[in-house]
């Protein structure tokens, strides 16, 4: 049984590919940690997941780190039970490594920014934090090396509903985090609204870019990544429609030939 699990998770990957994917997964979580730290330091509202963690902290008085561990434990357990095929090394890195990276990055950003807390600086922090965080999430998704536990659950749902899109599912999940966090006392602000509206679409935007510019040269690209590009999706839909029309015409022609032969 264990051999089958290992083959399913790592089959076809060389040691070099494993090392590259692990390194890129750590890089993705570092980018996410930088983005989240910028969001939190702006004090204009955090990204959706941070609002949820803030609410847990304010309710349980357990500290933000422990709140993150509680959330990770719950989502990882659910993903192991219902979305095991999406779990891999990247899932462990995002679950365990993210909190460590955030704890390292946050004070450094605090030192760099210092006491410069003007509204302009805060706005720049939100904008940069949003882009960097979504870049990290996009790389994590593009790697197909085991998503975060939350994304694993999302993609499992998409398995049952293939016509649904990741970006809209991401917005829905983020909305649930915001509402739950707010009800528990988490702070909601401009940054929260921006994160809620743009995280899903921006992650979908970065996935095919990472796939083309970074993963393809390393021979780690995945065909599904380009499907997250709106342009590529339209091309695929067009080709599918053309193929269906061609197949329908072939059936009609065969029917005509059969009728003529019967006559």
From TrEMBL:
The keyword Endoplasmic reticulum is assigned to this record: no
Membrane-spanning ranges: 20-44, 64-84, 91-113, 119-147, 168-187
Annotated coiled-coil segments of the chain: 231-258
Superkingdom of origin: Bacteria
InterPro entries (alphabetical): YczE/YyaS-like
Keyword vocabulary terms for this entry: Coiled coil, Membrane, Transmembrane, Transmembrane helix
PANTHER family linked to this entry: INTEGRAL MEMBRANE PROTEIN, INTEGRAL MEMBRANE PROTEIN-RELATED
The protein, known as: Integral membrane protein
Record organism: Neobittarella massiliensis (ex Bilen et al. 2018)
């Amino acid at each position: 049984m264990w051999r089958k699990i290992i083959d399913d998770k790592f089959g076809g990957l060389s040691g070099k590919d494993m090392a590259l994917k692990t390194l890129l997964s750590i890089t993705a979580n570092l980018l996410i940690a930088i983005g989240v730290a910028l969001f939190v330091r702006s004090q204009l509202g955090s990204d959706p997941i941070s609002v949820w963690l803030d609410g847990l902290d304010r309710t349980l008085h357990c500290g933000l780190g422990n709140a993150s561990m509680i959330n990770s434990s719950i989502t990882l357990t659910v993903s192991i039970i219902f979305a095991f095929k999406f779990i891999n090394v990247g899932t462990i890195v995002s679950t365990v490594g993210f909190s460590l990276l955030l704890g390292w990055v946050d004070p450094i950003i605090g030192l760099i920014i210092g006491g410069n807390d003007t509204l302009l600086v805060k706005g720049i922090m939100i904008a940069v934090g949003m882009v960097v965080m979504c870049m990290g999430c996009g790389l994590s998704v593009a790697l197909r090396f085991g998503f975060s536990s939350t994304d694993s659950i999302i993609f499992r749902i998409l398995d049952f509903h293939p016509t649904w899109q990741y970006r809209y599912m991401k917005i829905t999940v983020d909305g649930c985090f915001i509402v739950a966090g707010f009800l528990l006392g988490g702070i909601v602000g401009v940054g929260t609204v921006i994160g809620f509206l743009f995280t899903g679409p921006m992650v979908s935007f970065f996935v095919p870019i990472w796939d083309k510019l970074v993963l393809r040269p390393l021979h780690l690209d995945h065909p599904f990544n380009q499907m997250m590009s709106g342009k590529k999706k339209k091309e695929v839909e067009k080709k599918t429609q053309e193929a269906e029309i061609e197949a329908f015409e072939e059936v009609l022609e065969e029917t005509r030939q059969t009728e003529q032969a019967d006559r």
